[in-house]
Amino acid sequence: QVQLQESGPGLVKPSETLSLTCTVSGASITTNSYCWNWIRQSPGKGLEWMVYICSAGNTGYSPSLKSRISISRDTSKNQFTLQLRSVTPEDRAVYYCARFHESARIFDYWGQGTQVTVSS
């Protein structure tokens, strides 16, 4: 069974950098045909895709967040990490990591999500 678990601070101050890590079990993040994503949902809004890193290491970024976002991975720990710079209260959201199945074109596994608040 594939499991994803988000971890990171629940509270970040404005202008700081948010760093969240997704730990994957039951599958390797280097296995072909999958991309590993960060997606968020702000209060009262729909899901917003943010960034991915695929098994080969290639990445993709939301145009609206590209200037503030980065993604990296630690294959030895089977983890991938989101960094969002210069956060504002508008970055308050539940952040999810999710696996995208390239062939089926679906997000087939999700983490439970982690709430992040931006406040001084």
Concise structural overview:
The strands form two sheets. Strands 2, 4, 5, 6, 9, 10 and 11 form a seven-stranded mixed sheet that branches.
Describe the structure.
This protein is mainly β. 0% of the residues lie in helices and 54% in strands. The protein contains no helices and eleven strands. The strands form two sheets. Strands 2, 4, 5, 6, 9, 10 and 11 form a seven-stranded mixed sheet that branches. Strands 1-3-8-7 form a four-stranded antiparallel sheet, with no helix packed on it. β7 and β8 form a beta hairpin.
Morphology: globular
Radius of gyration: 14 Å
Main beta sheet, described?
A: 7 strands, mixed
Q: Percentage of helical residues?
A: under 10%
Measured between the Cα atoms of the first and last residue, the distance is 39 Å
Low-confidence stretches: none
The overall average pLDDT, rounded, is 97
From N to C, what is the helix and strand string? EEEEEEEEEEE
| Number of beta strands | 11
| Helix vs. strand class | mainly beta
Tell me the number of helical segments per DSSP (H or I, 4 or more residues long). 0
Strand content: over 45%
